[in-house]
Amino acid sequence: MTGLRKEFPRISVKTLCGLFGMTPQAYYKKKKTLVSRRQIQDTMLSFVQYYRSKAPGIGGLKLYNELRSVYGSGLIGGRDTFLNLLRSRHLMLPPKKPRHTTDSNHLYKKYPNLTKGITAQYPNHIWVSDITYIWIEGGVCYLHLITDTYSHAVLGWVLAPGLQADYTIQALEQAISESGGGNLCGTIHHSDRGSQYACDAYVNVLTGHHIRISMTESYKPTDNAVAERMNGILKCEWIYGMSLFKDEDDARQQIAQMIDFYNNGRPHMSIGMKKPMDVYYGEVPGKCMWKKEGKKRADDK
Fold first, then answer.
1. 160 three-state secondary structure
2. For residue 71, with 0-12 CB atoms within 10 Å meaning exposed, 13-18 middle and 19 or more buried, which class applies?
3. What are 148's strand-pairing partners?
4. What pLDDT sits at residue 92?
5. What is the pTM of this model?
6. Residue 158 and residue 177: Cα distance in Å, rounded?
7. Domains of the chain, with CATH numbers?
8. Could you say which residues of the chain have pLDDT below 70?
9. pLDDT tens digit string along 36-68?
């Protein structure tokens, strides 16, 4: 005894292990495994925090695949174990609320589909219009598009904070300006049945240029296939592989570069590896090179 301090006898690791039916070798191996696993988890969580700082909306499966590509599956372990780790640290993203760009529950006139069985034969024969959402940090904005079916060229686009018809009309007016304006009686404008396309203001712009109005009659993506394909290319080849846009201005600047390359630099198999704007302004499109059998690859668009 030193003052009030009491000296307790030291017990060896061997003795303690014997009391619990364990060998010292098993104890040290277990201790090393626990420490190593904790270090691995700390590394994974640091990795998650880094990626979320760059792309707050990146999901658990994408994070897991990135971790495996960097550290290997042997070190990272199974997918479910990783996702359970995220859940235990409250790092799983909440389910995203579904966002709909089409509101067909309106009282405006709905027009018949004029594009059934028709293939575009020249520039400005059939335009397709669509709206798709673009995620940015802290929210979402909307890309309003007009695409020429014959050439696959994007003729008008507006990135906007909402779905209002004013923005859709701006994209339409860009397309009309690109086409030279005036009387476009040979043009069919095809869209879904959304209120943006059926409202009086939008219809007045179309009829003012003698553009015929066509709308889908169902909700199948194939009813507006060229527009859906354009959205898919934009997102799959560019946006999904990038960090989340910082804000609307950042998204607008980068999407402008994407669409410029899509129009002027990207060869399209559907027009014989020609560039959309070249075909739009007179170059004869080549033969469609899509594969007919089986599923088409993402780079065959």
1. strand
2. middle
3. 127
4. 79
5. 0.64
6. 14
7. 13-88 (no CATH), 126-300 (3.30.420.10)
8. 1-36, 54-55, 57, 74-75, 94-106, 219-224, 290-301
9. 677 778 878 887 888 777 667 677 777 787 777
